[in-house]
Specification:
The complex is a heterodimer.
Chain A lengths: L1 H7 L5 E5 L5 H27 L3 H13 L10 H25 L7 H19 L5 H30 L3 H23 L28 H20 L1 H11 L1 H6 L4 H28 L10 H11 L4 H25 L5 H21 E5 L9
Helix pairs in contact in A: 2-14, 3-13, 4-8, 4-9, 4-11, 4-12, 4-13, 5-6, 5-7, 5-11, 5-12, 6-7, 6-11, 8-9, 9-11, 12-13, 13-14
Chain B lengths: L2 H30 L7 H21 L6 H29 L4 H26 L6 E2 L1 H7 L10 H7 L4 H19 L1 H11 L1 H6 L4 H27 L3 E2 L4 H14 L4 H16 L9 H7 L2 H16 L20
Helix pairs in contact in B: 1-7, 1-10, 1-11, 1-12, 2-3, 2-4, 2-10, 2-11, 3-4, 3-5, 3-10, 5-10, 7-8, 7-12, 8-10, 11-12, 11-14
Classes of the chains: A mainly alpha, B mainly alpha.
């Protein structure tokens, strides 16, 4: 009987084992292959749907992002715009990172940023002209940060005390925020167009100043500082260490005397505060306007960026650059080739799919069944 | 609100509820297997656009129009489209064990992007009038029983819908029964609660997850198709389905993972969504504010069930976690 059994058991064709650790070089190679495969699939898709040469489209995308310099001005506007967009995406990714590292699945960044935008816009309308511009900016900054933090703290308190599912809670908070913004616009807008247009267009109250005669520099500076701070905070501070411990095992954290509830609420508050800051930067430093789609899904994209970078702030820089390249580039390419610009979303998601699939190959090793000895065959 | 308006209000609530009911029934099956599929809005959009593609090719073919065939073709395309989209999610999260939140969000971007893209192409080919419309197919989906309008108020409230509304309720009841009362349902729940134990008991965890997620995806996709074909009378509009996808995810929580409660829940959600214009004397901005209600109610339900901490009302224990045998 036992004999028959052993004959029937066959080694499976594919057997998966866990890797201990993978070298940086190897993981880079795996990811580059992944991105190449994604671009190949996207190219096939482009050919299949539009019949255009994919190389032409990629070239148009590159031109759209890098942009040609405006004659004699020395200012390369598209270039700056793309960098700024990447920086904003980077900053939201940084914001969600501490919470993720703690395994708190805050997918409410969209709403938290939006609440920051809403607060800034409200302050611009309410206090513009009544106080000095620098004071106004400080008020906008502080209020946005606080509101962003509060928007994140609400679910975190429920998580800390009653273990409420934070993924679903923060997701719902996004739509509450969006509805509040639409409501706010309808209340403030007397014209009935449901659009506030550019706020304080003539006066420029609550606008971040241009530095070195250029747009966006102020935002980019802030984001650079945030990046460095976040890197240091996560890697070298005591609180950063506490976050990793809570993320690895709450029981261990409790055992070594970490107040888990406090860490959860504090960390998520930081996440929300940075999201609020991003909202401030979007309104004061870029759009000077408000609408419910102003964040444009970047709150969700940031989650993927943070995850793909394995919570490493430095790695998030190239990844957000890649994502922005795809979305800005495709906007340009699609207008050049007269195809719908939602192809940007398709390309982005294919690249994301393949990058997260790469993670499997860095974490696990695929072993194939050894070919049987030739003697048997 | 007078009598006729009240009836119209009930009819619209129930119409919209079918989309939400199908969407959330699908998501419930998925979540019961421990997969939190945040790609549901994308799957619903992909399912709907697949149906539209089927409609486009059918109406542009030279064959004589047959309502039954048009329904079968669009439904078939929708099932195929949502199955393929769901398979991306399954392969990544189950076979490659990627993070479910990230994969789901990427799938939503993908599905919504794809539907907008294909939608705009079809719109262009149909003359670029802004919407891709298939009035005959919309009519086929909205066909009611022949004697429905002769039964007065009863007929108006209960029999004035296309077949998909009843299909949605039947599916929800069957799913509720299968999950709660059958062996397959028991196995499915055990996979979602504790896959390691299920594995030890000899249940093929991966197979259960694959089948549950795919079946769930197809049902959600049909929800998307229903919205486009019946509620919107076969008019395609970009970016319309993702909000109903998220509402469906919310409804899963509201109905504490029970499809039979979701039947009632979906009608409440539908009513909250469409009630605005029916409340005379309410300004547009207050109507807008009313749309917040489904989400706030969901949040309240979520907090209450976690505070009460009753075992039977909790999300599946391993919801959102990948399972790898060697990591037990």
């Amino acid at each position: 009987m036992a004999d028959v059994r052993t004959k029937q058991i066959r080694e499976p064709l594919i057997h998966i084992t866990k890797r201990d650790d993978v070298s940086f070089a190897k993981s880079t190679v795996i990811h580059l292959i992944g991105i190449a495969v994604a671009l190949l699939i996207s190219s096939l898709l482009i050919v299949a749907i539009t019949g255009q040469n994919p190389l032409e489209i990629y070239k148009a995308m590159y031109e759209g992002v890098i942009g040609t310099p405006i004659a004699n001005s020395g200012i390369n506007k598209k270039y700056m715009e793309s960098i700024h967009q990447a920086a904003i995406l980077l900053c939201i990714s940084l914001a969600v990172t501490p919470a993720f590292k703690m395994k708190f699945w805050n997918i409410g960044a969209e709403g938290q940023v939006l609440m920051g935008c809403l607060t800034s816009a409200y302050c611009m309308l309410e206090f513009g002209g009544k106080v000095d511009n620098s004071v106004l900016l400080v008020i906008m900054f502080a209020a946005s940060v606080v509101v962003g933090a509060v928007w994140a703290i609400i679910p975190s308190i429920c998580k800390a005390f009653w273990n409420t599912n934070e993924t679903l809670f923060t997701l719902m908070m996004n739509y509450v925020a969006m509805t509040l913004v639409s409501y706010f616009i309808m209340v403030k807008d007397k014209s009935g167009r449901s659009d506030l247009g550019i706020i304080n267009e003539r006066t420029g109250y609550g606008y971040l100043p241009n530095l070195f005669d250029r747009n966006y520099i102020f935002n980019i500076l802030i984001i650079t500082v945030v990046t460095v701070l976040m890197f240091v905070y996560l890697k070298y501070s005591k609180q950063g260490y506490e976050i990793s411990v809570v993320g690895e095992s709450e029981n261990t954290a409790r055992y070594i005397g970490i107040n888990v509830k406090k860490v959860i609420i504090r960390t998520v508050a930081i996440s929300g505060a940075i999201c609020g800051l991003v909202g401030f930067m979007i309104v004061a430093g870029d759009k000077h306007s408000i609408k419910s789609s102003i964040v444009d899904g970047q709150g969700f994209t940031a989650i993927m960026v943070s995850w793909m970078a394995k919570f490493n702030p430095i790695l998030m820089i190239p990844i957000s650059a890649l994502i922005v390249f795809l979305s800005v580039g495709s906007k340009y390419a699609t207008s050049a080739f007269r195809i719908d610009n939602s192809i940007g979303d398709i390309l982005t998601s294919i690249v994301i799919f393949s990058i997260i699939a790469c993670e499997f190959f860095t974490r696990y090793k695929v072993n194939f069944r050894k070919p049987k000895g030739r003697g048997k065959a | 609100m007078n009598g006729t308006m009240l009836i119209t209000f009930i009819q619209q609530s129930i119409r919209l509820s079918s989309t939400l009911l199908l969407g959330s029934t699908g998501e419930m099956i998925t979540e019961k297997s421990g997969n939190l599929n945040l790609g549901t809005p994308g799957i619903m959009a992909a399912g709907a656009i697949s149906g539209i593609v089927g409609a486009y090719f059918y109406t542009s073919s030279s064959a004589a129009f047959s309502p039954l065939l048009s329904i079968l073709i669009t439904l078939g395309c929708c099932i195929l489209g949502s199955l393929l989209t769901t398979l991306i999610y399954c392969f990544l999260t189950i076979t490659l064990k990627t993070n479910q939140n990230v994969t789901g969000l990427a799938l939503t971007t993908f599905g919504v992007g794809l539907s907008n893209f294909v939608g705009s192409i079809i719109n262009q080919r149909m003359g670029g009038t802004g919407v891709a419309a298939f009035p005959e197919i919309g009519k086929a989906y909205r066909t009611t029983l022949p004697f429905a309008d002769k039964l007065g108020i009863f007929g108006d409230i209960f029999l004035s819908y296309g077949f998909m509304t009843y299909l949605a309720i039947v599916i929800a009841v069957i799913v509720a029964f299968v999950i709660a009362k059958t062996r397959v349902g028991l196995n499915l729940r055990s996979v979602g609660e504790n896959p390691a134990t299920a594995d030890a008991a000899g249940i093929n965890v991966d197979r259960y997850k694959y089948v549950a997620t795919c079946v769930g995806g197809i049902i959600s996709g049909i929800g998307g198709l229903y919205y486009v074909m019946d509620f919107a009378a076969a008019n395609w509009q970009n970016n319309i389905l993702d909000q109903f996808g998220w509402l469906s995810v919310a409804l899963v929580i509201f109905a504490v993972w029970r499809p039979n409660i979701a039947i009632l829940g979906s009608i409440i959600f539908g009513a909250l969504y469409v009630v605005g214009p029916f409340l005379l004397g309410l300004s547009t901005k207050d109507q807008e504010l009313l749309k917040i209600l489904p989400y706030v109610v969901t949040i309240v339900v979520l907090v209450i069930i976690s505070m009460r901490d009753k075992k039977e009302n909790q999300p599946p224990e391993s919801l959102g976690l990948s399972y790898f045998r060697e990591e037990r």
